[in-house]
What does this fold into?
Amino acid sequence: MGHAFACLWLGSSIPLVLMPSKSKIKTRIGMQLKTILPLVSLVLLSACVAPQGPYSTNNGVIQRAFDSIGELIGGSSANAKSNNQGGKMVAINAANVMIEGPHPTDPRWQGKLISETSLYHFFDAHPRRSPSDNWPRIAIRIDDYSETLIPPNSGIAVQYIPQMVGSTQPNIARPLECLKLTAVIWRSPKQSEKIENIVHCNTDIKMSEPTISVGGLTAYKSVMSLASASSGQVRTFGPQSPTRLLPILTDTDARLYSTGQHLFSSVFAQLGYKGPLDGDPRLWFLNLSQRPL
It folds into this structure.
């Protein structure tokens, strides 16, 4: 699908998808959609104008369109607010999150920031040169995570949904949440670098980072390794990568990946990784919710 056709399809069809039923809309989300519906086409089409960076592909056009809807509903980062976590409140994929705040002092979350390691913008410095290019590559293991990232059910946490501009209801941000990681960078089949005790929290997210949409994060579940470099179902630190870059999701895996979408999006952004958009297979996870022994 060409770029122009993608833009026309977005501008004409998405409002039909969002059109509420004829029955009276009673929910807050329904009222928000009813309010913004006349503007959605214009927002979607404006997302297609001069796309840059991660939005420059057809998938990027679609991603930017949905990000624009989120900004229209909940306000953009220009309307950021503070709470007792410190930092600024922004809406990331329709969830209020505090970013650019002080890193937590809890000993559990002490460690290296991504920006303090060679992981920072790694893929920007090592772009993929061709579809067969599979070096360098990175393996990540999740060693620990905040318990609130696995809610008791898989429903939407409505208390963290951004309020409409002018609403009398307060915006409530998600609690402080962190991931602790171990990563191995493979520069060649025999040259590797292991980086342990990496901690990434919502307060480490930067305002300048691109956001990977829920659709992009979902697309990453389907990205596969090159057959010539795959270890099949075996998930190790490498150098070979497993067939699927993410493990087949258990119920708790799915909740962690969905609830923690702001953290996974930021990890990808700080590594300069655009695999959810361009299918780059050079980054994989050993695990999600199952902590290593």
Notes: Residues 94-285 form one domain. The chain has eight helices and six strands. The chain has two domains: 3-74, 94-285. The radius of gyration is 20 Å.
